[in-house]
Amino acid sequence: MTVVERLNALQDTSYAAFQRKLIPTVDEKKVIGVRVPLARKLAKELMKEGGYETFLLSLPHDFYDEDMLHGLLISEQKDYELCIRQLEQFLPYVDNWAVCDIMSPKVFKKHKEELLERVFVWISSDEVYTCRFGIKMLMTYFLDEDFKVEYLDAVAAIRSGEYYVNMMIAWYFATALAKQWEATLPYLTGKRLDVWTHNKTIQKAIESDRITEEEKKILKPLKRS
Question: What pLDDT does residue 122 have?
């Protein structure tokens, strides 16, 4: 069976209808409707079987679910340099937030120093989902023991008219508030973000269980009009 045939065998039409509502930037006809756990299982199977490289090179794919599987295969890659090459080949073809956000290569945990160089290249990209992916990697791997204030500066400096970039910036800063409160709060009190992203950051932080009630009381008056 081809990869598309294997995906079609996993189709859930009710899930397809639900998924289409979540990814308005994707043509409805391109959504097969494969649930993520089943797509992950298929990715692991393909990794064990081998020969999946031909699929990774067959860009652009015809279906959204192929893109999701592609992202999951990259996330399973254990060779860092190969993972980066596969990402660089794929990122220009990513056209929605779901595929962008599904990618979280496990191998990155062991290569943070090299990864950081790539992150700054990605966040400076004019491509919506390349930039979003870079911010997500900075949020995932560099808000804990490897955190530096300069990373907040880099994200705060991004100016975009793209909704999906600005949503990720807000997500990044809301997460930063939860993990690095004292370093992050001045970016809101100092109005370092554009108004929309500033307010969305506060909204997401207030909705978060990781922000204390005292911190939420501080954030609420900081909303801008």
Answer: 98
